[in-house]
Structures are given as C-alpha cells and as structure tokens.
Design a protein that fits this description.
By secondary structure, the chain is of the alpha+beta class. The chain folds into two domains: 144 residues, 2-Layer Sandwich (Fructose-1,6-Bisphosphatase, Chain A, domain 1), CATH 3.30.540; 114 residues, 3-Layer(aba) Sandwich (D-Maltodextrin-Binding Protein, domain 2), CATH 3.40.190.80. Helix content is 33%, strand content 26%. The protein contains eight helices and 14 strands. The strands form four sheets. A seven-stranded mixed sheet has the order 3-4-5-6-7-8-9, sandwiched between helices. Strands 12-14-13 form a three-stranded antiparallel sheet, covered by helices on one side. It has a two-stranded antiparallel sheet with strand order 1-2. Helix 1 packs antiparallel against helix 2 and helix 5 packs parallel to helix 6. The longest helix has 25 residues. It is globular. The N and C termini lie far apart (40 Å).
C-alpha cells in the first residue's frame, strides 16, 4: 500500500481545528459527563470530536481501519499493521475541569510504527502535525514551523515534564542521575509536543497508557529528531494485544538536542535500570 502521509496530514489539519473549536464550544455550553466501565470519565465533547475526526479520516483513507478510544470498532482485531489510532480528547479530566492542556489526537500507524501524527491543543491554540523524518511542525499564525530546526542551546540545564506533581522513587532517581533540577506537571499528550519543540528535555514514564494515548505524540516527537524507547533502548511498536502498552520497564521520552542521548549512554543508565 502506497501511503502519501504528507497529503493525508495536510488534508486533516482543518478538520482538527474545527473539532478543537467544537470541543471548546461544547465545554462553554456545559458538558454532559458519564463514567465508562473502566471508571474513567467521558463527555459529549469526546463523542462529538470522535465523530468529526473519524468521519473525515474515513473519507481520506477509506481502506485503513480506525481504532479509537471511544468506540469498540476494530478493537477485537489482531495483527493489525497499518491502522489509525485516535484519542479524541486526551486529558478528559482537564477538559471537564476547564483546564487547557487537553488535546485531540490521531496517528497513522504504518507497519506497526508511527508514520503520521496530529495533535491539537485548542485551549492553548497549538496545532502540531508530522509525516516523516524532519517533517514535524507546529502551526503558528498560519505559518508552519519545522520543529526539527528548533534547537536548544547545549549549555541550558535539563528540564523535565511529568504527569503529576510527585515523582515515584525510580523516576526521582533518574532525575538525580541526569541532574534535572526542575520538572513541570503536564498530563496530556502535549508533553510530546513541547519535547519535540525543544521546550523541555525529558519525560520518564511508566507504560500505563493505551496505544492511542501516545501514538500521535510519538510520531511528532520522533519526526522532530527526538526519541521514544523503553529504557533498554528498544523501539515502541503498535498493534499489541488490546492496544495496551505492555508492563515493560519505563519508557523514556527524549527530546533534542542530540547530546541528551549521549548523556544517557555515557551514564550507562539503560543497562542499570
């Protein structure tokens, strides 16, 4: 299957912006909330955004199956290699509580690897997309900024992001190992985007998320020159059973500059963790 990832990404950007505007309007009007079987919240905003995204994606790529957090379609399929992963709203709790870090996410997985990613953080007015090596972008004032060209000065201290205000002992040890003095709480997939943009340097996390939580961010980060691996340096692949990240060692999100990778390798931390 010949897939033009650039063409697909460009065709979907306006739909992501529209869906983002809809999510904001629905929140202003008052959200209808429910609790799912897994005890996580879902709103009419999640459902409506999912409808907008899946309908457009189905038209653009009618032969590629879609796996979304908010529907059961295709979730029982095994051995998928090329498929979409959609998380219509990542950070639903923040969305409900009128916070601004929630995101809209879609990733096209090609041969079990992220080939394309789109993330919109509408409350922050930040739209990101990627479709291949050195083709990772943020749209600012209707102009695309290539994230692979945004470099951070080597002499600046490392700053991390983390999903909570507290660190588990093993993550705290990693922060100490790499002399990370500051970290900031960030719960949604926006973490990947700010890493890709060179605004932060590290995110160490346990693999507790489902595949649709990380796939779009993985694409954007990797296509900017960053890296997402488990802590032994193994790449993260998609299409695992039930689309769940396996209980492996913590995976490590690493942004540019490239010297961060050499810092980790010199420390020998991959082998010791």
């Amino acid at each position: 299957m010949n897939i033009d990832t650039e063409k697909i990404a460009l065709e979907l950007i306006d739909t992501f912006k529209i869906a983002g505007d809809v999510s904001i309007k629905l929140r202003k009007d008052g959200l209808i909330k429910e609790i799912k079987k897994d005890n996580t919240p879902v709103t009419n905003g999640d459902i409506e955004v999912n409808k907008i995204l899946t309908e457009k994606i189905s038209k653009v790529t009618p032969d590629i199956p879609i796996v979304s957090e908010e529907t059961s379609i295709n979730k029982n399929k095994e051995n998928l290699k090329t498929f979409w992963l959609i998380d219509p709203i990542d950070g639903t709790s923040d969305y409900i509580n009128n916070k601004d870090e929630f995101t809209l996410n879609a990733a096209l997985i090609i041969n079990n690897k992220p080939g394309l990613g789109l993330i919109n953080a509408p409350a922050k007015n930040r739209m990101f997309y990627s479709y291949g090596d050195k083709n990772s972008f943020e749209i600012i004032n209707n102009k695309k900024i290539n994230l692979s060209e945004k470099l951070k000065k080597d002499n600046q201290e490392f700053i991390a992001v983390h999903y909570s205000n507290s660190l588990k002992p093993e993550i705290e040890r990693l922060h100490e190992k790499f002399n990370i003095k500051k970290f900031y709480k960030m719960k949604s997939s926006l973490k990947f985007c700010v890493l890709a943009a060179g605004e932060y340097d590290f995110y160490f996390a346990e693999p507790r998320a489902s595949e649709w939580d990380i796939a779009a961010g993985h694409a954007i980060l990797e296509h900017s020159g960053g890296k997402l691996t488990d802590f032994d340096g193994n790449e993260i692949l998609y299409g695992k059973p039930n689309f769940k990240n396996l209980p492996i060692k913590p995976f490590c999100l690493i942004s540019r500059p490239k010297n961060i990778l050499s810092v980790i390798d010199k420390a020998g931390e991959r082998a010791k963790f």
